[in-house]
Amino acid sequence: MDQIAKKQIMIVGKDSHFSYLLQRFVRTSAHRFIPVNLSDDVLSLARCEKPVAIVLEVDTPTTVGWQTLRTLKSDPEAGRIPVIVCSWLDESARGLAEGAEVYFRMPILYKEFGAALAAILKEEEHG
């Protein structure tokens, strides 16, 4: 297995269907995943696990998902981890302004997700 295949992606959400789908996407792309519930201490887990990317579910305009994004991005250590926001909301401008590297409006297609993840991992290798 090459080095890229050993990278961990943290999947943070509260909907089990979202988590299951994204776990399949990550597994299909030959990466490992760390499932995390939005009610968990996402910041501490990100600091401890040091994933190469975080996939974050944001389901309502005032959800804990937005606060989680702000908390991650304001942290000196975790703030460097790229975040992919996934949401039913048409809030891409807000997501990108708050620090997300990529914003997907659901439903998410594997091909688009895989391309975004590959781009993030390529940047990390060269950055």
Walk me through the structure:
Strand 4 (83-87), helix 4 (92-97) and strand 5 (102-105) form a beta-alpha-beta unit. The protein has a single domain (4-121), classed as Response regulator (Rossmann fold), CATH 3.40.50. A five-stranded parallel β-sheet has the order 2-1-3-4-5, sandwiched between helices. It has five helices and five strands; from the N terminus they run βαβαβαβαβα. Mean pLDDT is 91; it is low at 1-5. The chain has 127 residues and is α/β, with parallel strands linked by helices.
Brief overview, please?
This protein is of the alpha/beta class and 127 residues long. The chain has five helices and five strands. It has a single domain (4-121), classed as 3-Layer(aba) Sandwich (Rossmann fold).
What is the class in the CATH system?
Answer: Alpha Beta
> Pairing-aware structural class of the strands and helices?
alpha/beta
What would you say the CATH architecture is? 3-Layer(aba) Sandwich
Radius of gyration: 13 Å
Which sequence of SSEs, written as H and E, runs from N to C?
EHEHEHEHEH
Q: Please state roughly what percent of the residues sit in beta strands, choosing from under 5%, 5-15%, 15-25%, 25-35%, 35-45% or over 45%.
A: 15-25%
Strand order of the largest sheet: 2-1-3-4-5
Measured distance between first and last alpha carbons: 22 Å
* CATH homolog superfamily: Response regulator
Low-confidence stretches: 1-5
Q: Tell me about the biggest sheet?
A: 5 strands, parallel
Report the total helices. 5
Number of domains: 1
How many strands appear in the DSSP assignment? 5
Inertia-based shape: globular
Mean pLDDT equals: 91
CATH fold type: Rossmann fold
